[in-house]
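Quick check before the chapter quiz. The format below is the same one you will see on the exam, so make sure you can read both the input and the output lines.
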Amino acid sequence: MALGSGVSFWAFGLYIDPMEQEFGWSRAEVSAGFSVSLAISGLSGPLIGRWVDARGARSAILFGAVMTSVTYLLLATTSSLWQWFLYLSINAVFRQLMFFIPFQALISRWFDRRRGMALGILGTGFSLGGFVVLIMAFVIDKVGWDGSFIFSSVAVLVLFLPLTIFVLRNDPSEVGAFIDGESHEEAAERSRAGPVRGLTAREALKTPLFWLQAGAMTLFFFGVFGWLVHQVPFYESVGVNRGVAAMLVTIMAAGGIFARLAFGFFVDRFERVEIAAMGLLTFLTTAFVVLLINSTAPGITIFLMLWIVGSGGGPLLEPLLLTRSFGLKHFATILGTLGVVETIGIIASPTLTGLIFDSTGSYDLALAMLAAALATAFVLFYFASRLPHPVDEQPVPAPT
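Here is the expected output.
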């Protein structure tokens, strides 16, 4: 997760200035390439989810790693805007195969009672990706944006292939173990409670809870992704040099490690994940308001503290919401379906943020827009928390 996020999501902002300088593209055009790739990634979610549910996460991660490596080599040959859009889109599909959906499904298959903590540990990988930004910034400075894509290609293969082949397994049973590390007796007791339950994606789509959660998560990602793509350019726009900006990203990522572990520890104690999400959104909304009021060193410092706490549970929300609401049986497919809806926010935010900067020469209106989106997500999560979990209303199937 650290490498996968570090060379993609965390590094996106590092490419904006080099691509502008070399090709003369606007900030909105470069950002739109990222937005389109994220859209393609989201739209491919249901198919990838079905792959994971049917064939297991391991095969998806292995194939995705190989093909993602190939597409980074393709990106290194970019020479025109249409290629930038196309190559990023192809990369996005294969990157999705080795990223959130299969890894979250994998963790959900191995852990139940402490799933929040397990996902919190997984989420630290996303935070560790911020450290990779320092490496990527150094690589771009030394060998250029095209050389950095070649570096990403090699790095993905070197790490993912041995881990996938020799370590990852789809299910505890493949190594003679049981979920949560249970004993034979505990596993037998669990099996007597009946097989794994869960709504299908079609059934989940018919529930109001799914759409409230989908709307809230869409706005959540709208607020978060707009910042992730533009954080380095924002810092540069207020007088922070690139090296310090990369360091700020790394500090944010380092703090996120502890925040995700803390959120994973505490979220298992919440009856409704939506309540925990509302707490995160309070911190994130306040963070943008602070940065809008004061973008000097004190304001940035307060922003970072609020952002670190608020973004701590971000990668954990989807799997915890969906497994508790709709069960585990078709989790990956429902997660992929949710990704299609979330794509609206993911593709719109970076592009709109870039357009606002291009037209005003400032990120002020963009910060206000991101804060408003997060505040609206808070309201939707509140209403979602008032609805029952559909999986709890399903008849308990007879043990097999």
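If your answer matched, good. The chain has one domain: 2-168+199-388.
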